[in-house]
Amino acid sequence: MHSWAGPRSWPRHVVVALTVALFLAPGLFVVWRALRLGASIGDTLGELRGPAWRSAQLAVLVSVTAALLGTLLAWLITCTDLPGRRIWSVVLVFPLALPSFVGTTGVLAGFTPGGVLASLWELFGATPPRRIRGLLPAWLLLSAFSYPFVLLPVAARLRTLRRAFDDSARMLGASSFEIFVRITLPQVRSAITGGTLIVALYMLSEFGAVQLLGFDTLTRVIYATRQVDRPTSFMAAAILFVSSIAVVTLVRSTQGQVATETSASSRAGEPVRLGRLTPVALIPCVVAVAVGVVAPLWSLITLAQRGVSDGRVALDGLTDPLINTGSMAVTSALITLAVVLPIAISGVRHRDITGRIGAIAVVAGFALPAIVIALAIAVLTLNTPLLDRLYQTLPLLVIAYVVHFGSQALGCVEQGVRSVSTSLLDSATLLEPSRWRRMLHIELPLMRHGLFAGGGLVMLAVIKELPATLLLAPIGFRTLSTEVWASFEEGFLADAAVASLALLLVSGALTWLLVLRESPSRGR
Amino acid sequence: MKAPLVGGEPIKSASIDIDGLSVRYGNESPVVIDVSLHVAAGSITALLGPSGCGKTTLLRSIAGLERPESGTIRLAGCEVSGPRVWVAPQQRNIGMVFQDPALFPHMTVAENIGFGLRHSSAPERTARVHEMLELIELEAYSGRLPRTLSGGQQQRVALARSLAPSPGVLLLDEPFSALDAKLRTQLRTDVADIIRQIGVTAVFVTHDQDEAFVVGDSVGIMHQGALRQIGTPDEVYAQPCDPWVATFVGEANLLAGNAASGSVTTALGRLTLRNSTLRGDVVTLVRPETLVVGGGGVPAAVGRIDYFGQDTRVTLHLENNLTLIVRVRSADGLRRGTPTTVRYGGGPAIAWATDPLDVVVQ
């Protein structure tokens, strides 16, 4: 194969090496600090047994629930004659735009005295729960917020499965149920495991919701001890780091061993007739939307409405957070693209060891929970001469975002790089000797779809991010997510609700652009 | 060739009777229009037609993968599809091979073949799978995954998979069209042998005239949703029912002429007609191989000469801008641009009364 590593290839290796160092530094620092605890390692581990167990419980329970619910819903909206399935396929994806801490805020606020959910409870003659804390609510709410991570890939795979498989199996005497179990399910299994492991990873790093629900997981320990008890904090971070790396390794190993054939020409087959089971099939859809979408939104909208109408909330207080969130999202997206592009080019065009290490480093950054990255970066800069001046400045926050969300952009950017063929690069080289002009006039325009998609995903992630922003943002720098957080903590429910809705509006619009428009539902 | 099947249940091949069948998708115009067809038990019928003629839809209706709008389908005399009857595809005891082998990618070759044998015990199933592997001569591949097989091997496995449950009818939907030309020729011979050996009633769809004629005991010609003609390959080629079928199943010179009292006057002179009752303006079919060059007759100028090895195709230009295609064993003595003669050397000719809208007549 033609190689693009010419005589000037050394700058590429240097650039990639620097990027790799940037992405690996926080993780390595955390492990190094944890190991330096020396004799107290055993004690610290003992103290953390409870939180580690709770983190594991949450990760397992939520990911299994999300897997079952997400797969069932994906099947219902793609393969059956479920009434209104085009609407369901949009509504059911909505929790993707809802950061879990915002959703939890909505539900908790709704259950406060006078809240809409508490009133609903009373309407049915029940006493509304006074304290919503612990594993059970965390499990239910987080499952309802995270099943779309399974639903989306499974629905996408189901849509591309060839109809010929169904027809063949049917002609061999298989019933609809048998076809689903023996033919369909094995072919979507990798999509299910992939989505499930992503949910598990998010649950390990979940911070906002568990903090609000008072469920003591490792992330909560890090947040509580980060300034008073650094050893505990770093040990908790190290445990999270190791388990997250394990989950991500599992994710990577499930990809690529997929024994499926798909074709773009497959058309949706005759949908499975639900018949008398239709009402039963509607139950999971209704429950998922009720808990994951309606309950938090209804509560937030009511609170915001009340707050605005009685003048307690000044909408212009949102101007700064909106501007801050927007500018951070755009800046981080642009810098992430610039950092990830050389790695994508290395991986796609050169396919050498540099490219592979680069990709692994970027994915490792994603495996690190945001709060672990934030802790590592904060302590690392504070203890390094010269760098300590960066502590609590915006560049540091941007670095944390880039490290954490680089992998969100990598896939799309690689796709963009792939869309420029080698033969096109060859003819461009013959016609335009300047490397930079080629990049500017030929490659970047051709890659723009991939770059926009990658940048958009980073923006979406930055807008929804909470723990790293809490730990690293300069004092007084308010974003939409910290605004939601701070207002709720201080009991200003209406302010929290208004900020939440603003955040949802922005992230909802981005999600629609990036996710729903890309995978249009096929109605018949 | 392998010995006939032993051990497995003998196939009770079923006849197919289709009566007045029409199929329509949604509110569009029908894709199959009033088709009636009888397929004898144990015979092989080819449905031949250009793409979009409705042949695949007809096949899928027999399978039960499409619901006809009207008409009935009977298998071995039992109605499976009709105004008040609907038998699900999985209960029709029909095997089907698709254009795309559609082997289940997560199952081995043996598991694929055994998929339809759900009512058999494990030892029975193993025996039957082995038998089928022998039949397609892929015994060594039983543990392989489909994607490690070549296209031709995949299609043979697909055939074995559909035959394993001993269906009464085997349907094949352009089973060879995804393969390259050489492999296609080989595979179609193999498949035809296997089908005949087993004795299952088979209907297969193709747009390739050679394939239809080589494999089919009878050939049905479909055009625009209608079954235009059905007969043995020889009948369809020599006595096509209309000019469209005549040109679709082979090269044809269509000559304008005037028919009277059992013969027709054309540019080639008077030809005896098969249908002696025909009168007036007609179109006459003259197959290229029925013409004799250089043996007297009408004067002509030699045009293109295309060599095909087994024979040669010569284009002749007659007076009045008339062009004839001729197939000759050898083109010795013919040179482009030189004069020669041509005459009709076949039996009684086929002709049809002219329908000005139907064909372009030379």
Summarize the structure.
The complex is a heterodimer of chains A (524) and B (362). Chain A is mainly alpha-helical and 524 residues long.
Provide a descriptive summary of the structure in words.
The complex is a heterodimer of chains A (about 525) and B (about 350). With about 525 residues, chain A is an all-alpha fold. Helices cover about 75% and strands about 0% of the residues of chain A. In chain A, helix 15 packs antiparallel against helix 16 and helix 15 crosses helix 18. Chain A starts with 9 loop residues before the first helix and ends in an 8-residue tail after the last helix. In chain A, about 50% of the residues are buried. Chain B has about 350 residues and is of the alpha+beta class. Chain B is built from 8 helices and 19 strands. In chain B, the strands form 4 sheets. In chain B, strands 6-7-8-3-9-10 form a 6-stranded mixed beta sheet, with helices on both faces. Chain B has a 5-stranded antiparallel beta sheet with strand order 13-12-11-14-19. Chain B is globular and about 75 Å long. At the A-B interface, helix 9 and helix 10 of A face strand 6 and helix 4 of B.
Ranges of chain A where pLDDT stays below 50 over 5 or more residues in a row are 1-7, 257-268, 519-524
Strand order of the largest sheet of chain B: 6-7-8-3-9-10
Number of strands of chain B: 19
Radius of gyration of chain B: 24 Å
Helix % of chain A is over 70%
- Which oligomerization state do the chains in this entry correspond to? heterodimer
Mean pLDDT of chain B: 88
Largest interface: A-B, 20 and 23 residues
Q: How many DSSP helices of chain B? A: 8
Instruction: Name the helicity range of chain B.
Output: 10-25%
Structural class of chain A: mainly alpha
- Rg over C-alpha atoms of chain A, rounded to the nearest angstrom: 24 Å
Number of helices of chain A: 23
Pattern of helices and strands of chain A: HHHHHHHHHHHHHHHHHHHHHHH
**How far do the termini of chain A sit from each other?**
44 Å
What low-confidence regions of chain B span 5 or more consecutive residues with pLDDT below 50? 1-10, 357-362
